[in-house]
Amino acid sequence: MARGGRARRLGLALGLLLLVLAPRALWAKPTVRKERVVRPDSELGERPPEDNQSFQYDHEAFLGKEDSKTFDQLTPDESKERLGKIVDRIDNNGDGFVTTEELKTWIKRVQKRYIYDNVAKVWKDYDRDKDEKISWEEYKQATYGYYLGNPAELHDSPDHQTFKKMLPRDERRFKAADQDGDLTATREEFTAFLHPEEFEHMKEIVVLETLEDIDKNGDGFVDQDEYIADMFSHEENGPEPDWVVSEREQFNEFRDLNKDGKLDKDEIRHWILPQDYDHAQAEARHLVYESDKDKDEKLTKEEILENWNMFVGSQATNYGEDLTKNHDEL
Q1: Where does the EF-hand domain lie (predicted)?
Q2: Has residue 18 been placed in a domain?
Q3: Which of 6, 29, 59, 150 has the smallest CB count inside 10 Å?
Q4: Residue 250 maps to a domain
Q5: What is the H or E stretch that residue 244 is in?
């Protein structure tokens, strides 16, 4: 068989493997800064300082990135009409008011939708017997099957060590996601497998995989050089950028909590899974504060529609791309 054919198959298999790597992990060593901090609702990051007037951040938080672009193609009247329907859905108890908590719940749901969309796209590739479950064997055969059946080709591949490492790692993650222990994943369990950072019971796996990725000397800790090497690759022994110097200071002052010169699992957890800030909560409070005309700390539909351009866009906001996705999925 031609070498090119084997290479293409290997590339496809590696592409599938990218779905199950630890969050933010990369195959090649980076030459620019890499962010490992994992935040639930990971589409929703920090509010950019330049976005105070355009409301783009608010639109993406409230609708999701794709649907915010869809709204940008509507007339103002169409946008307000659809927004009114969304408000009815956000008001869970039907009392005619939208509270900060209801807004936070909505924003979290919107931001997590892309995760479930991703799982839906790949589900059929793994659910080979179409029983609406994915067994470990199905996943293993779909991802590794060819090379498990042709070990000589795998042994000759430059990615041999990658496969050797990833198979047991995938199995360990799959078993952690498989909460009932039957080696078969429901959609929710498979979602936890592909996106462990979004599930509380998977957080230890996220920490462990991060440690394994960065701990190059295998001592079970991350020292400062390993910490920096994960973010930055020296080129021809040139000077370190200022941000690398700053990261070394961050390591010493804030990452290495017990000041022993290295990070253990608890310190890695504290680093990559911060618990001190809820972006969805902050955005919900911001939307209420900016739209609450009578200052009763909750919003009526009228208050939201009066300030509609903070929540959704339209053709008038003039920043969007043509999309045909039907917003009725919200």
Answers
A1: 78-113, 114-149, 165-200, 202-237
A2: no
A3: 29
A4: no
A5: helix 242-250
- Burial profile 60-92: b = 16 or more Cβ within 10 angstroms, e = fewer: bbbbbebbbbbbbbbeeeebbebbeebbeebbe
| Total Cβ atoms within 10 A of residue 3 | 9
pTM above 0.70, yes or no: no
DSSP 98: E
Q: How many structural domains comprise the chain?
A: 1
Distances (CA, A) of 45 to 35, 280, 319: 12, 9, 20
Count of Cβ atoms closer than 10 Å to residue 123 Cβ? 14
- Answer whether residue 65 is part of any domain: no
What pLDDT, on a 0 to 100 scale, did the predictor assign at position 45?
53
Cα angle 53-57-58, degrees, rounded to a multiple of 5: 85
| Residue carrying structure tokens 């936070």 | 104
In this structure, what is the dihedral angle of CA atoms 64, 70, 74, 79, given to the nearest 10 degrees?
Answer: -20
Residue 37: count of CB within 10 angstroms of its CB: 12
DSSP string spanning 146-198?
HHHH-HHHHHHSTTHHHHHHHHHHHHHHHHHH-TTSSSEE-HHHHHHHH-GGG
Would you say residue 245 lies in a domain?
no
Domain range holding 128? 74-221+264-323
pLDDT tens-digit series, residues 256-315: 999 999 999 999 999 998 877 788 898 999 999 999 999 999 999 999 999 999 999 876
The rounded Cα 317 to chain-centroid distance in angstroms is: 28
**Chain-centre distance of CA 282, in angstroms?**
19
3-state DSSP helix/strand/coil percent for the chain, to nearest 5? Answer: 60, 5, 35
